[in-house]
Amino acid sequence: MSGIALVRKPGPRLADGLLSYVQREPVDPGLATRQHDAYVAALADAGWRPVYAEPADDLPDAPFVEDTVVISGRLAVLTRPGAEERRPEVASVASVVRGLGLKAVRITGSGTLDGGDVLQVGPTVYVGRSARTNDEAISQLAALLPERRVVPVDLDGVLHLKSAVTALPDGTLIGLAAHVNLSGLLEPAEEAGAHVVPLGGDRVLMAASAPRTAAALEKRGLKVITVDISEFEKLEGCVTCLSVLIP
Ligand SMILES: CN(C)C(=N)NCCC[C@H](N)C(=O)O
């Protein structure tokens, strides 16, 4: 067993989720539920025990749990999401992380932070300056994680840092240089190829919408597991957003 995968089932209002950079498209709630089940099953197959946050049927974006908490060791930093309508998602995630024995602390005051803007690579914590995450929250995060190197990153034209860049198991950054002020990125063949969830060892989880990137990563020696998350992609979600892995 690698650890715990914090997840939350999509609710009946999923299709009303927030959109920033894409046009609204019809979302099939039944298909979304089946895709979410398959996503969780892929994590479980890789050794991550699913722990579900309480359903939040009135909160359309609640399955994107990544945005509500940042885990560093045994510390859980509860976020203060930049979109006010997403703030009620945090309370139920706080109960879960406390129940798991983690120490919970919070982003407070005028700080706003979405977990999707936080990319942890070894000792470094990259944090996107986005419409959702501000400098006040980045300073608070740096103070809460004194042992880590917190690096603010400017973004252009994307919702979150992890909409544009993630990291392979060896720490190589894979992402879209046009949207993120970071150098030395491995450029994926498709946009969705920028989204990789390291599952432990040489295994990574990716969306089925990035087959050419998946093939390229297999060539690099990675074992790529793919899941179809089309209904969540319509809401600007990606494979990282749907879980928080707690080693
Ligand atoms: C890395 N990404 C993209 C995330 N962690 N979150 C996606 C949230 C999408 C939601 N509709 C919203 O606009 O908040």
Brief synopsis:
The chain contains six helices and 14 strands. With 247 residues, it is an alpha/beta fold. The strands form five sheets. It has a three-stranded mixed sheet.
Would you mind describing this structure in some detail?
- Keywords: Hydrolase.
- InterPro entries: DDAH-like.
- The protein is built from six helices and 14 strands.
- By secondary structure, the chain is of the alpha/beta class.
- The strands form five sheets. The protein has a three-stranded mixed β-sheet with strand order 2-1-14. A three-stranded mixed β-sheet has the order 3-4-5, with helices on one face.
- The protein starts with a strand and ends with a strand.
- The chain binds NG,NG-dimethyl-L-arginine.
- NG,NG-dimethyl-L-arginine is lined by residues 17-18, 20, 61, 64, 66-67, 83, 86, 116, 159-160, 162-163, 235-238, 240-241.
Characteristic key phrases:
3-stranded mixed sheet; 247 residues; binds NG,NG-dimethyl-L-arginine; alpha/beta
Strand content: 15-25%
Would you tell me the structural class of the helices and strands? alpha/beta
User: Looking at the chains present, what oligomeric state does this protein adopt?
Assistant: single chain
Catalogue the unreliable spans. none
Distance between the first and last residues' Cα: 9 Å
Strand order of the largest sheet: 2-1-14
Shape: globular
Q: What is the mean predicted local confidence, pLDDT?
A: 98
Helix content: 10-25%
For the secondary structure, the number of strands is 14
GO molecular function: amino acid binding; dimethylargininase activity
Protein name: N(G),N(G)-dimethylarginine dimethylaminohydrolase
Family: Belongs to the DDAH family.
Organism: Nonomuraea cavernae
